[in-house]
Every structure is written in C-alpha cells, then in structure tokens.
Specification:
It is built from 18 helices and two strands. Strand 1 and strand 2 form a beta hairpin. The protein is an all-alpha fold. The longest helix is centred in the middle third of the chain and has 33 residues. It has a domain of 89 residues. Strands 1-2 form a two-stranded antiparallel ribbon.
Amino acid sequence: MNLPSPAGSPAVGLGVPLSENTAARPTTVAAVSIVIAVSILAGLLLFFAVPMVPRISARSYSTGFADGYNLIAGSIANGTGYRWSADTGETMVREPGYPLLLAAIFRLFGEQLEPAQCVNWLLALGIALALFRLAHHIAEDSRVALLASLLFLLYPGTLIAESRGGVEILFIFTASLFMLSFYHAVKRGTLPRFFLAGLLLGATLQVRSTPAAFPVLWLLYGCMAARSFRQRFIELRKTVCLVAGMAVVVTPWVIRNYLLVHKFVPTSALAGVALQEGQYTCQALSWNGDFYAAGQAAGRERGRLAEQLGIHFEGREYFQVFFDPNDEWRFNNLLFREGRDKYLARPGLLATCVARNTVNFWFLGKTFRITELNVLLQLPLLILAFSGLVFLRKQGQLGAMLPILIFAGSIFLAHLPLVAEARYSVPVCAFLIIPASVAIFEIGRKLRAQSLQEGIS
C-alpha cells in the first residue's frame, strides 16, 4: 500500500514490503486462525492468571469494575436514568459509550463482572484482527501483521485492561475501527469516505474524548504538507467532512447535556477534576511517592471546596457525586477555571507538570512498586516502537505510520496539562505495538542473516 500524502502531493509511505523474501508468509486465513487460537490462550490467562494480580499489587490495580462506570450502567439498566444512583442527579462526567454497553450487558446477564470480561475478550479479538489489517497496510508483510496481533493479545497491559470493567478495551476497539476507516479515506481521497471515518471518530469520542484534537492536528499536517492553496483547500474540505461525521454521532449527547444544564457540553464534564488532580499531584508527589495517596488527598481538597460552596453532594473522600447536574457543571467549571488561572499565573508550574506527565503517562502507577513494574513492561515496548519507526524511516515507509502517530499523539497531548498515569497509555501502546513488531521482525531477520553468513564462512 502506498499511503498518499495530503492533497495529492507526492506519495509517502510504503513502496516495497519490509522484506522481499516471500517464503513462509502466512495466508490471511492462516493468520486469522492463529490469532483466534492465541486469543483463546489469552482468554485462559484472563480468567485464571490475571485474577491473581490483586493479591500481588493490593490496592494498586483493580481487576473489577472501575471508575464508576458500573454504577451509571446499573442505573440505566434499572430504568432510573444516566446517574450514579437513584437518589443523585443525572450526570455528565462520563462519556456515554461504555456505560450504555455495560447497561446492555447488565440487562442480559445481571450486574456481574464475568460477562463484561467476556465482552472485553471478544472486543480484544476484534482489535487484534483490526491491528492485523493496519499493520499489513503499513508493513505489507503478513508476518509483521500477525506478530502485532499476537503481541497485542498477550501484552500484560491488554490482559489487565480486559479484566477491568473499565473503558479501555472498548476505546481501543472503536479507535482501531476509526483508524482502519481513516486509512481507507486517505487512500481513496473521497469526501464520503472521510464522512464515514468521522462517524467512527464520533463513536470513539463517545467512549473517551481524549483524541478530540485529532482532526485539527491532521489538518495542520495536511496544510504543512500541501504545496498550494488549492491543495490546502482540499484538505480543509476533507477535514470538514470528518468533523461533520463526528458531529452527527456526538449531537444526541450534546442535546441531552444542553437540556440538563443549558450549556454546550460536547464530551464529558470532567476536565476540571482532571486539571485539579493533575496540578495537586504534580506538586505533592515525590519521585518515589504514592500516587494513590496523592490522588485521594486531591479528592479531599475538592470535597472541602464543594462544602465551602454549600453544594449538596456525596463523596467527600475522593470523587464528588452531585444531586443537581447544574451543581456538577458549576463545580467542574470552577475547578477548570481555577486550574487554568493557576497555570497562567505560574507558567513554571505548567512546564513542570507537562514535563512530569510526559513520563507519568507511560510509567506512573498507583504506588512506587507498580511504577517500577510499569517501567519494566513499558520501556522495552517504547524502545522497540522507536526502533521500528527508525526502520520504517530508513526504508521510506514512515509516512504510512503518520495517521496512527498523529492519533496517538492527540491522546498523549490531551493528558499533559491534566493528569497522567500509565493506564492512560494502554490505548496508545496498542498502536505502538505495530512499529514494535516491525523492529522485532527486522532485528530477527538481521540476526538470522548474520547467523547464516557465519555458518557459510
């Protein structure tokens, strides 16, 4: 596949496969069969090995329901609406994608973790197949594509995410479908294709809103790569179609939120909490400190502020739940304004927090022990991914990675001024497995060639 650069400028990306040797390349049917077989193995690990993680990590990682999604889903399933509990007000602090899926699971199977884990396992299989297609687009080699799929299925971060009743696996699934659609849109260059990709981007944002800046970043890249005003205008039209498709999916959520608080709330109303917690932990956390404890302390600060404002709420120890959606909006908006003003008044704090979050995003765990474990798991992947990008650049194939890199970058950048920890990098790592697989394949090929040469000599 040759991925065209924006607006018809000279093609960038893959001209030839990574290796001209076509021997022992698995067919698509064989590759899919292998992926399914390894997915079954990953399922066994999910249900028999991963449950032992909490015994090792104690409070650090939860393999149960996470972040309150089950509470909202339970309210939906019980017919009491999109709220934390029957006696609290409707909420806007969680995007609707995962709570609605979890509510459907609860209606069918009851409020149990195991059915949610099974759905995560099936979604992970779908992601692995999507990664196979994406990696094949980039590397044009089914061996690299197969390796990427298998690495994703067996990567510890994937297994932990599958075990949680949390948003990560659904987010990666919708994101991988969007990336596949976007690659086809860039290849075809037609406006309907970009509109279709926008629909899938909207679905992704309804699960997690962190890649919301992707259209802007892609348009900036397109305008920089374009060689004329006409080409820039073409890129603008494509981006408008992308955003239009996104808006179609997001609009029902926007309307619902407007009816609640008469404000434009396109994603979730949690940015204020994320900014306050990010600033607090940035200032309070030492290099070997306890992020869990710092986060709890940030939550208590929010609770004290809500009490001073005279707002009726629950959750003084960490997360505040409100009885009126207008109070929820007002409180989170106040937190965001105060955090923004603090950054404007203290640029050094912004620089410090961004610098720390650049590292925290990949490695920070709830405790120092878990941070050490994250370094052992994540650092090799990052090194391999960077090496794979170097290999692709040397072979003139880096352009084919650009949509993925810009999408991953939009998620990474969104966390830098807010709060960042390693679990937020799991969706990004899923895509970085592709260049990591390129590196593994190329290193293995060079080692085999060297061994063969030594054998002959």
